[in-house]
Design goal:
By secondary structure, the protein is of the alpha+beta class. The protein has a single domain, classed as Creatine Amidinohydrolase, CATH 3.90.230.10. Helix 1 runs antiparallel to helix 2 and helix 3 runs antiparallel to helix 4. The two termini are 29 Å apart. Its cofactor is Co(2+); Zn(2+); Mn(2+); Fe(2+).
Amino acid sequence: MINLITNKEDIQKMRIVGKISARVLEFIHPYIQPGISTEEIDNICHDYITKNMRAFPACLNYHGFPKSICTSINDVICHGIPNKYDILKDKDIINVDVAVFKDGFYSDTSKMFFVGKPNKNSEFLCKVAQLSLYLAIKLIKPGLRLRSIGKTIQEFVEKNHFSVVKEYCGHGIGRSLHEDPPILHYDTDDKGIKLKKGMIFTIEPMVNSGSSKSKLMKDGWTVKTIDESLSAQYEHTVLVTEDGCEVLTLREEESFLQEL
């Protein structure tokens, strides 16, 4: 069942929790430097969410996940667990994934960070992943076939000689962290689903520099590329509006998205 959120008060709560997630990514940016551990990053984000924003980190204890955010470095596609042994190094790329709960509603967002000065291949991979998300967001409006999102992402990514991860996807979100429908990032059967005003979901393409295949590590969470190639991911929570969409997790650096 696809939940629609059309009540103005509920939408405003989604805006607030979405803004919190965005602020966390903005706040952590200066700390992403060589020498910091992912556990330190997690602690900083946890304190900011709970003490400054008076919200709850939705990842913490979600199906047993032990930390407040996900940190995915280089060949980690998603769900990397912060720990004291993962120390950031110059030229690393890292995805920080933040999900927040407040006043009965959830938001979810992530972005890539460069550690020190990135090499050109890493920089281009991240650019393509981010632009694939923006192209999908630009499409969103009532009546759009759901598969158009994945088709647009896949075509753009593959045109740039990268690959789209197929085992993991975006999702509906609102009163639960994960709801229907699944938002696939490649062209496939969508069972005839069309977007409707009030739908809220995440779009979060995972783009690999090599094979699209993934492998789940022994910790039961960390997902890596099967060939140790680099991976990049960007994620936003979006609300379908009367004639387009609203990006609920928009960061200050992305103000241009309001004009799409």
